[in-house]
Amino acid sequence: MAIEKLLKNKTAHERATIKGQKIAKSISPGVYNHNDLTIEIVDIYLIDGGIEIFARAWRDGCQLGFGKDGSVDIERFRIYNPPIYIADELGEKIKEFRDINGFSRIRKYKEDGKFAVLQVLSQNILEFGKIDTDIVPNKIGHTVGTFYPDADPESTSVDGGVQRNVASADWTTNRSSADGTAATPSATFDDASAYARYNTFFIGRAVFLFDTSALGSGSTINSANLVLKVGGNSQPASNNSKTCIIGCSPASNTNLVVADYSCYSALNSPTEFATRQAPASAGSTMTFALNASGISAISLTGISKFMTRCQADVDNASPGDNITYGAGFYYADQTGTTDDPYLSVDYTAVATNTSDFFQLF
Tens digit of pLDDT for each residue in 6-44? Predict the structure, then answer.
């Protein structure tokens, strides 16, 4: 039976657990070739709300090391609320979205939990694996955790866009307004995630929340990435198109309203959590390596909160005639696709019992 059929009328936690159970049954220890990587899955286990995989990996014949110094041979990967759908032109699931220019588009997916998890695993390996390191045979790493927003209906975390579009208002008024004109907390499509447009002074911002409570109090975060899939972009010559990552505090962890248009940490000169990036091409993945401020924003016991804003918006640089700055990103899907945004965290958990102590280095 298709996994999606088993998720009907289930809570978010129940859906995540069911997906983990089904995917765990579909993946056996062994060697897999995926995305220019050779991955050896040593063990696979169920965890609360997801799946845990112990694996080592090679790229172009060279083994990748993990951990701060790259000495880890076998890394532990935990994927919470794992995706089950992958993009496929012949897929039976169709998702409609708007690109950054407002045109309606569709993207097709097929259910393949095994391939979806291998895709997430390979992305994690490329993010955190290191080459030319002294690997200690059989040394087991700490953990790379992958967290997805809670999809609609949200019960722990939300993602989506908040926009303001008032044709009669000027740039300054639209930018500094407390309220937007639309909020899309249940969107599964690419919306105006981080952009500004001249003709109506349209400004879009997006909120991405992740339940990272599984990290646990006392854990140490070594590094982390916010990973977003581009649905549509606009790339004029000016750097004003770049996406900025900042902190935010929406009124609710499970909903977005027009007042969240101003839930940013600061309108002007906010503390930025990563290096600004120019929009990648549609369908590409943008990985924002979080700096010390971004890592500090990750909650060990609750909800981690991020906002995307266009550089033109952050720097108060009004677009010129008929120019659109910025990029649009996919949001979390009801049952989970590999296009969904996620937060990946390389962390050291506190040992809670004897087995944990011997499992961690």
Answer: 988 888 888 899 999 999 999 999 999 988 999 999 999
- Residues 6+ away with beta carbon under 8 Å from 331: 149, 159, 160, 161, 184, 187, 188, 189, 190, 191, 206, 340, 341
Query: What pLDDT digit, counting tens, does each position of 107-162 carry?
Result: 889 999 999 999 999 999 999 999 999 999 999 998 999 999 887 778 889 999 99
Chain centroid to CA 21: 22
Q: Which of 89, 119, 147 is the last residue of a domain?
A: 147
Both 62 and 84 in a single domain? yes
Q: In terms of domains, do 10 and 124 share one?
A: yes
Query: DSSP readout, 139-169?
Result: EE--EEEEE-PPPSSPSS--EEEEEE--TTS
Q: Give every CB contact of residue 236 below 8 A, 6+ residues apart in sequence.
A: 323, 324, 325
Q: What residues make up the domain containing 322?
A: 159-345
For the whole model, what pTM was predicted? 0.92
Do 84 and 57 fall within a single domain? yes
Number of domains forming the structure of the chain? 2
CA angle 129-116-256, nearest 5°? 95
Residue 353 lies in a domain: no
